[in-house]
Amino acid sequence: MSKPLSRRTVIRGAAGAVIGLPLLEAMRPRHARAQGAVPKRLILWYTAGGQMPAYWYPTGSETNFTLNTAHKPLEAYKSKLIIFDGVNADASKEPIYGGHQGSFAAMLSGRPHTGVGFDVMRPTGPSIDQLVADKIGGTTKLKSLQTGVQNPGNGGNNPFVRIGSWRGEKELLPAVSQPGALFDYLFSGGVMPGAAANPMAAENLRKRRKSILDSVQARFTTLKARVGTDDKARLDKHLTSIRETETRVLMMQSQGACVIPARPMDGYTTRTSDVPMWGKLMMDLMVLALTCDVTRVANFMWGGMGGAGTATWLGHTTDHHNLAHGNALKEMTDWNTWYSSQLAYLMGALEKSPDAGGGTFLDNTLIMWWNELGNGSAHLSNRAPFVLAGGAGGALKMGRFLNYTGAPIQNGQILLTVYNVMTGSNDTVFGSPKYCPGPAPGL
């Protein structure tokens, strides 16, 4: 091939269908292929309500440790985990201790919050995903993607309850949390919920297309003739993944209609037994966005700030928020063991996708599992239960338990290290210098 394909190459079909492509060897400049440079990706993975030491923290030494009950589903990926203890989030206590809201803002920004009171507490600086996206998201369609499983009405009139990414106090970035809306947004020319849409064009799209992939198949065949053997295999896998996900989206939608962002699918709430199926579909779509190189930074929220509804699929009858504050050991163990099983599913999906230049997407992705509280029953931000997962392109030594309880560190130090690893920077402060004396020791 005389010159690389553009990384912005898409396949256009009938009825406005647009399919993004995975990152191919044919898209990388020859010198990059020779050097083996592979892009890194970041996923923020949010769960609410704090943790309990009885099920959360490992035992043992840094490299010879035993996972606690909640993390047992991740045993197969133990070598790709870093679990922390002894992490404080003291920025959440300024100007006063902020509970869910102030801790939420501080956990991803490393900065104190504004205001006093549930409805007015906001972050004073950007979340880490946005700063990373500023560095590594300039060549993709989306600098970052906000998604997950949450009720549109979580939090009532306080939008911050539903937000996991922000540029600042007044720029909160909403999540796309319905499968049809996210599929259209990523792969068929859809728009973000709340953005201006053309209802007639959207209606025509639904009526005219049988399948996005059916309309672009011939163009994929032409493209495959231009690329090498490994890229052909990546394209085949990519089409299969999109076909499977598209089929599941269409099956889940009422009357088989393709739901568009202006008309989101009804019926999916965090109070129903649909959550496991809903969550897997949203994770699959997020993985497709990463493997398509639509984005390299994603933020996945399970529920909203403070809780994720009632886990009827786990046999619960009390909602997550009340269980967390009620010191319900069995039910909170259930919740977090289930979250670990979902993380294992996500890691498996990333591991199945070979990355251009070597390894898998899991090898070159860093997942940061975070929570707005440390101790849910006591409503405290400390001990902040951070977990890192994946490979980060080899930039971090994984398979460790880092216990700082003898000399606690600040969450800003983990954020700083993650930021430097993801962006190739050598910054010495993340967020407020008062709460970030440098990178996390030994990380």
Q: The CATH topology of the largest domain is what?
A: Alkaline Phosphatase, subunit A
Highest CATH level, the class of the largest domain: Alpha Beta
What would you report as the Rg, rounded to the nearest angstrom? 21 Å
Give helix % range.
25-40%
Strand content: 5-15%
N-end to C-end Cα span: 42 Å
Structure description:
- The chain is of the alpha/beta class.
- The protein has 2 domains: 1-37 and 199-266, no CATH class; 40-177 and 268-435, 3-Layer(aba) Sandwich (Alkaline Phosphatase, subunit A).
- Helices cover 33% and strands 14% of the residues.
- It has 12 helices and 17 strands.
- The chain has a 7-stranded mixed sheet with strand order 10-13-3-14-15-6-16, sandwiched between helices. The chain has a two-stranded antiparallel ribbon with strand order 1-2. It has a two-stranded antiparallel ribbon with strand order 4-5.
- Strand 1 and strand 2 form a beta hairpin.
- Helix 7 packs antiparallel against helix 8 (229-252).
- The longest helix is centred in the middle third of the chain and has 24 residues, at 229-252.
- 49% of the residues are buried.
- Residues 31-36, 193-210 and 250-264 have low confidence and may be disordered.
